Amino acid sequence: MRLHGAEITESQITSLVLALFALLMTIRLRRERRRAREAAVTRLAVLGHSPPLHALARAAPRGIPGGGAGVATRGRADHGRGAPRPARGAGRRGTLGVSLTHPLKAAVLPLLSRVSAAARLARSVNTVGLAESGGGRVYGRRRVSSISAIARALAGAPRVLLLEREGGAQRGAGAARGRAPR
Amino acid sequence: MLLRPTDDAALGRHVPPDSFASLEFGDAAVHPSQLYFAIAGVVLFVVAWSLRDRLRVPGTLFWSVIFLFALVRIPLDFTRAYEPESI
């Protein structure tokens, strides 16, 4: 066999195949190791718009101080533009909970299975623990199984988001008009 | 495996007249491909030794050496001569 005038031997073809196989094996081993590491790490997610938290999550996507991993959400959720969408990896195994920012702190209240006394008094939830993933703390009246579930549930709460943005008085007015927060 | 004749005066070597290779090549200069492979092996070892701390995932160093050896083997094979029926 000849290629551009050079004689290609079976040995060279075999070497080429071997090189490709070795390259694939190396890539596979590294990928498996990365997946194992990601599954072992504690993940934290941020829903809503919080520049400091998002900056922290993006700056250290694989290791926030304290042994966690940050996952930021895409887009701003607090301007009535629709529901927050968890970023890639936000709902992976190992996610223990999600940190919410206003106005989601209040909007998420009806979704939770247990709420601490302080959070109930303040009508504001700062952290949601996910029961299925082994989180120690679960707040709310309804069990929340995943971050995606939270995001889907909050998809129908644009009014709540709008009222929150415009202040507490508007919130009361909205409730009087029958816009019950979901 | 046989040695491949070359016109390169710097690299070409003459095999001893009473050797087996001289039956094939006579007094023609040939590539000392055995030396090339030996040097490549030493270089590969040095590279692998320097990578041992960087490639921490078990198995990746092994496959990296296999990958590098296969890459080195391809150009070095141009300095070797095979029997026509084996090509």
Q: Could you please describe the fold and organization of this structure?
A:
The complex is a heterodimer of chains A (182) and B (87). With 182 residues, chain A is α/β, with parallel strands linked by helices. Chain A has 2 domains: 2-35; 42-176, no CATH class. Chain A has helices at residues 10-40, 51-59, 104-107, 117-122, 147-153, 158-166, 168-176; strands spanning 2-3, 6-7, 42-47, 68-71, 95-100, 127-129. In chain A, the strands form 2 sheets. Chain A has a 4-stranded mixed beta sheet, with helices on both faces. Chain A has a two-stranded antiparallel sheet with strand order 1-2. In chain A, a hairpin with a 2-residue loop joins β1 and β2. Chain A is rod-shaped and about 80 Å long. The N and C termini of chain A lie far apart (72 Å). In chain A, 31% of the residues are buried. Chain B is mainly α and 87 residues long. Chain B is 48% helix and 9% strand. Chain B is built from 3 helices and 4 strands. Chain B has helices spanning 20-25, 33-51, 60-76; strands at residues 2-3, 13-14, 29-30, 80-81. The longest helix of chain B is centred in the middle third of the chain and has 19 residues, at 33-51. Chain B is elongated and about 50 Å long. The mean pLDDT of chain B is 83. Chains A and B meet through β2 and α1 of A and α3 of B.
